[in-house]
Every structure is written in structure tokens, then in C-alpha cells.
């Protein structure tokens, strides 16, 4: 009870600011600290741009000043912890954390609780136990297994429609390689598992020729794929990439090896980043699964504003288990591509 009281007592000050009280004097300022695991990550930079834009819109709508500060954790949890400390020491009103190490959220939750500053994690899902340490901690993201299921379904549908298009060896089995994201990331584990499980559940036999991490990165994926092409040549019938940057890296490697667009294996990714959508249009990427960057940013902003207004989180977003905001994934192929390109 005591905790609840102090939590709302703390947000009362910015709440007054957010709802426009204090107008007529100098425009009040709200400070939002955004800690990123790695600012150069393609998907994360899309979410960040959206966040900045949406907070700017709120600023205009509410006639207040919202300062959004970004901190790049450069893939180091200790660097990120210091950045969060700085936000809290400087009296930021809310912090949004794209945590480097998903198993390390307890420290941040405890610090945020100590300062009574709400913390919204996003994209990299903390261990549930850590999130439950304090009522002011939330997570905004997408259910990782769904992306795997949809990715598997894309491949399964293509196989069912025209098996010969994928089954170059004609042995009735899909030979594939898997390009994985960072080890330990929920999206790596679950996208990898559920994509293949979906093939199996759909009655398609598959054989893994190779798999390796390329840490979400196009360059690393291209280097891996180059090696695999040297070893395996045309035996690779499909490439499952845990994200689009790595799918694009696989395409780079195939094209550099002299394959024509028609000769490429069946390559699929996740995210629906702008360059990936262009690759779908060009026919080099056969499909992707939209990771809703705009929706995640919208939810983070709506949740932040509700908390700063002193309102309940559930008044602004659909909350599961009092903690989680889930955004849906959507499969993207050449057939429905245009609606996603227009939405950009
Ligand atoms: C995205 C990746 C991104 C990663 C970063 C995933 O959800 O699909 O593209 O690199 O998040 O945490």
C-alpha cells in the first residue's frame, strides 16, 4: 500500500505538467530517458525514430516540453547501468529501457523503484521474475514464438503451392540453413524453434545443413553465408534468418557468389524493415514477418503519458498480466507488400 501511494505521489508532479497545468507560466518540461542496447541496430533505430516523433507530437498536442534523451549502451550492460543511473540521478520522469542483457533487469527495476520512476522495457524481454519486482515496471514487445510460426508458415505455404520451387534436390525434404540472432535473446531462441516446428507440424520434413549466430547483423550473416555456399553450394534450399538484416546479408552473399535472383535459395526474414520490403519487391527476399516498430513506439508513448498523467497503465494500453503490452506480428509477401510499403 505504501509503495502504491508513493508511486503515484511521485508522478503527481509530472502529471500536473503533462495535463497542461502550469500553462501561462514557462512551458513545463518532462524528461524521458531512453537507454538502447545498441543504437546502430536497424530495427532499434526504427523504433527510436518513431519514439522521438511521437513524443514530439505529444509535446505539441499538450503544449509542454518533452525532452527525450537517448543513451547508446553499445552492447555493454555495465555501460547501460551507468546510463540508467545518470537518468535517475538527474531526475528523469520516466525511463524506457532496451536492455542489453535480458537476465540483468533486476538491478534496473530496483533502482527505478528506489527513485519511484516508472520503467518501460521494450524489445528485449526481461525475465518475468525481475519485471514482477515492482509494479512500476512494464514490458512492450511482440511474442517471439509468433514470428517463428509465421515465418515457418510462409515457407510451408510456398512448399505446398509449388514444392519444386523449393525442393531443388527433389528428395521431398527441405534442406535449410539458419542464421540466428544474438545468443540468449528471446527472439533468437523462439523464432529458431518455432519456424522449424511449424514445418514439422505441417508435415514437411526438413534437414538443417548449418546454423550459426550472426548477431542480427548483415555483415556477419553475409560472411557466414559465403562460407556455407563454398561448403554446400546449391544444396541450400532455404535460409531462415531470425531478422531481415541477416536475410539481406544472405542475399548479398548469394549475389556476390554470382547467383542470379532466380537461383537464390528461398530466403525469409523478420522485421519488415524498409530495405527488406524493397528486397521482397525485387523478389530476392521471399517473405518477412512485420515486427511492429511503429506500434511498439506508440504503446511506449501512450503508456508513458498515462503514467505521467497519474492514470493507470490499462487506461492507455491493453495490458496482459498487469505488465505486458503485446503487439502482433504480420506475415509479409509479394502479395500483400503494398500495404506495408505505403504505411512507411
Ligand atoms: C529484431 C532484430 C533486432 C533485435 C534487437 C529483434 O526483435 O527482430 O532485428 O536486432 O530485436 O534486440
Chain-wise SSE layout:
Elements: H1 2-18, E1 29-36, H2 42-62, E2 65-72, H3 77-89, E3 94-97, H4 105-115, E4 119-122, H5 128-131, E5 137-141, H6 144-161, H7 163-166, E6 174-180, H8 186-201, E7 206-213, H9 218-232, E8 238-241, H10 244-256, E9 266-268, H11 274-282, E10 288-290, H12 293-308, E11 324-326, E12 330-332, H13 337-342
Parallel strand pairs: 1-2, 1-3, 3-4, 4-5, 5-11, 6-7, 6-8, 8-9
Antiparallel strand pairs: 10-12
The structure holds beta-D-glucopyranose.
3D architecture notes:
This protein is α/β, with parallel strands linked by helices and 344 residues long. It folds into two domains: 168 residues, 3-Layer(aba) Sandwich (Rossmann fold); 147 residues, 3-Layer(aba) Sandwich (Rossmann fold), CATH 3.40.50.2300. The chain contains 13 helices and twelve strands. Helix 3 packs parallel to helix 4. The radius of gyration is 22 Å and the shape is elongated. The chain binds beta-D-glucopyranose. Beta-D-glucopyranose (BGC) binds next to helix 2.
Fourth-tier CATH superfamily name of the largest domain: Response regulator
* Small-molecule binders: beta-D-glucopyranose
Order of helices and strands: HEHEHEHEHEHHEHEHEHEHEHEEH
CATH architecture of the largest domain: 3-Layer(aba) Sandwich
Low-confidence stretches: 1-16, 20-24
| Helix content percent band | 40-55%
Please tally the β strands and state the result.
12
Mean pLDDT: 92
Reading off the top of the CATH hierarchy, the class of the largest domain is best stated as: Alpha Beta
User: Helical region count?
Assistant: 13
What is the makeup of the main sheet? 6 strands, parallel
Q: What is the spatial order of strands in the main beta sheet?
A: 2-1-3-4-5-11
Query: What is the CATH topology descriptor of the largest domain?
Result: Rossmann fold
Instruction: Give the amount of beta strand, in percent.
Output: 15-25%
* Structural class by helix and strand composition: alpha/beta
User: Using only CA atoms, what is the Rg?
Assistant: 22 Å
Cα end-to-end separation: 45 Å
Q: How many structural domains are formed by the residues?
A: 2
Overall geometric form: elongated
